[in-house]
Amino acid sequence: NAGVTQTPKFRILKIGQSMTLQCTQDMNHNYMYWYRQDPGMGLKLIYYSVGAGITDKGEVPNGYNVSRSTTEDFPLRLELAAPSQTSVYFCASSSRDYLNEQFFGPGTRLTVL
Amino acid sequence: RKEVEQDPGPFNVPEGATVAFNCTYSNSASQSFFWYRQDCRKEPKLLMSVYSSGNEDGRFTAQLNRASQYISLLIRDSKLSDSATYLCVGGSSNTGKLIFGQGTTLQVKP
After folding, report:
1. pLDDT digits (tens, 9 = 90+) for B52-96
2. Does A39 contact chain B (CB < 8 Å)?
3. Could you give the CA distance from residue B110 to residue B98 in angstroms, rounded to a whole number?
4. For chain A, which ranges sit under pLDDT 50?
5. For position B93, what pLDDT does the model report?
């Protein structure tokens, strides 16, 4: 049982490039989330999903897109990367709604230069 | 005002000390509260949920004061391994999401 896995662990992008951050969970959780964490700051919700085929915006969705075609996978797409998107990105999942324990992946450290 | 506010610290304490962190929240409709622990450059992990009646898990005690809108975390007999950042988290159905505080850093010294 691997829990929540994320790839890649690290990535450097040039301004204007695009990439997809991968997230997979093997706990059969319906709820999945993407957060970003800037240095010295709390986590901010980017997008979340309550089940396959359903996604919704969080606090800071601009510049990102998501899809949820299966229960297990919840990829985050960055289009036209900007320096302001330099951050650590965490994917999380929970068995029920957001008010319950969330299990986090190890994170992806992204730098946009 | 931030929805969930914490003193970032750092709190530097000797081994064996008792240390307490407070966290305030601005949304009176917040229903669920948690403390998460985050080690340096790692993902957050749930430390404990916070119940209205207060709850204890070994050396850790969490309390909720709805009238004053704050929650607290008390750590007794601090260990070196308690060194980490502690994230205060609140959530409510009217916002539909969890709000994370910026975290309080604890450094336990030998």
Report:
1. 888 999 999 999 999 999 999 999 999 999 999 999 998 876 666
2. no
3. 35
4. none
5. 65
Round to whole Å and give the CA distance between B97 and B89: 10
What is the DSSP secondary structure assignment for residue B58, as one 8-state letter?
T
- Per the CB < 8 A criterion, the answer to whether A47 and A63 are in contact is no
> What integer pLDDT is reported at residue B30 of this predicted model?
78
What does the angle CA A11 – CA A17 – CA A21 come to, to the nearest 5 degrees?
Answer: 45
CA A16, chain centre distance (Å): 19
Q: Which chain B residue has the Cα nearest residue A43?
A: B100
> Do you know the residue count of chain A?
113
The residues in A 64-83 lying below 8 A from B, measured between CB atoms, are none
Report the C-alpha gap between A14 and A100 in whole angstroms: 37
- Does any CB of chain B come closer than 8 Å to the CB of residue A47? no
Mutation to test the A interface, candidates B48, B98, B99, B104, most A Cβ within 10 Å? B98
- The DSSP code for A111 is E
Residue-wise pLDDT tens digits, A82-99? 999 999 999 999 987 767
The pLDDT of residue B107 is above 80 = yes
Number of A–B residue contacts, CB under 8 Å: 46
* Neighbouring residues of B17: CB distance < 8 A, sequence distance ≥ 6: B78, B108
The residue among B43, B45, B99 with the most chain A CBs within 10 A of its CB, best to mutate, is B43
